[in-house]
Design goal:
The protein is built from 10 helices and 12 strands. It is an alpha/beta fold. It has one domain: LigB-like (Protocatechuate 4,5-dioxygenase, Chain B, 3-Layer(aba) Sandwich). Strands 2, 3, 4, 7, 8, 9, 10, 11 and 12 form a 9-stranded mixed β-sheet that branches. Strands 1-5-6 form a 3-stranded mixed β-sheet. A hairpin with a 2-residue loop joins strand 5 and strand 6. It is globular, with a radius of gyration of 17 Å.
Length: 262
């Protein structure tokens, strides 16, 4: 929810992740510390956004790679799909900060200003009010990064070229580009494994995704275009689904962690 004190307060704390601060921190630390990493230093990440019991271990694998960045990131461009409202283009925010049980994360208003002149980018708080897709990433970022600001962007119908341009405008050496996305939705376990493996291969090969492959495919496709321009290589570091973590095998949701590096 958006508070009258210019803060966006948590919409899904206590549902998607623990509301109690110490429990939340322990949970996030467990997911990160349990992950295997190979020393990749990322310039961009794709990580899932479901409830932590389902996608937390996969998100932890993505965030564990940030421990290998000695300089750290001072800004995160956090971009993901609109789940709650119909949206044309991209929605930024007017608030000064996003709050979680672990504290407040400031919004980089100067960074937002860099992209608000682009046709298709607007300030619309309603797109963020109940949106979980960005919120669930904030506690992970708060645990692994010492101090940072965010440029939070919710994406609706948009051309990948628009998203790529926005990401290019905001990319700097101390900025992490973070795309929030799950993969396939509600297939049987083994079918989902095949579909998600094909999606992971497409991401690594720089191919654009279709709608059924990932709910965040618009943002992913924008990152794919930018990665081609920059010469970044995507690597799959985790690929599982809800049947591997906390759900049945009848109808699963796919989750992937992908790291982009120079």
């Amino acid at each position: 929810m958006m508070g009258q004190d210019n803060i966006r307060y948590p919409a899904v704390a206590g549902r998607f992740y623990p509301q109690e601060p110490d429990q939340l921190r322990r949970s996030v630390e467990h997911y990160i510390q349990s992950a295997e990493t190979n020393g990749i230093t990322p310039v961009a990440l794709i990580a899932p956004h479901a409830g932590y019991v389902y996608s937390g271990p996969i998100a932890g694998t993505a965030y564990a790679t940030l421990q290998h960045n000695p300089a750290g990131f001072r800004r995160v461009v956090l971009i993901g799909p609109a789940h709650r409202v119909p949206l044309e283009g991209l929605a930024a925010v007017s608030v000064a900060a996003f709050a979680t049980p672990l504290g407040q994360v400031p919004v980089d208003q100067e960074g937002q200003a860099l992209v608000l002149d682009r046709p298709g980018v607007q300030v619309w708080d309603e797109a963020h009010r109940q949106e979980h897709g960005l919120e669930v990433h904030l506690p992970f970022l708060q645990v692994v990064l010492a101090s940072f600001s965010i440029v939070p962007l919710v994406v609706g119908h948009a051309a990948p070229e628009l998203v790529a341009g926005v990401l290019a405008d905001l990319h700097t050496p101390d900025t992490l580009l973070l795309v929030s996305s799950d993969l396939s939705h509600f297939y049987a376990y083994h079918q989902a494994q095949k579909l998600d493996a094909a999606t992971a291969a497409a991401i690594e090969q720089g191919q654009l995704l279709a709608a059924e492959q990932a709910c965040g495919r618009v943002a992913i496709n924008g990152l794919t275009l930018l990665a081609k321009e920059q010469g970044w290589q995507a690597k799959t570091v985790d690929l599982r689904n809800s049947g591997d973590t906390a759900g049945s095998h009848d109808r699963v949701v796919g989750y992937g962690a992908f790291v982009y590096s120079n």
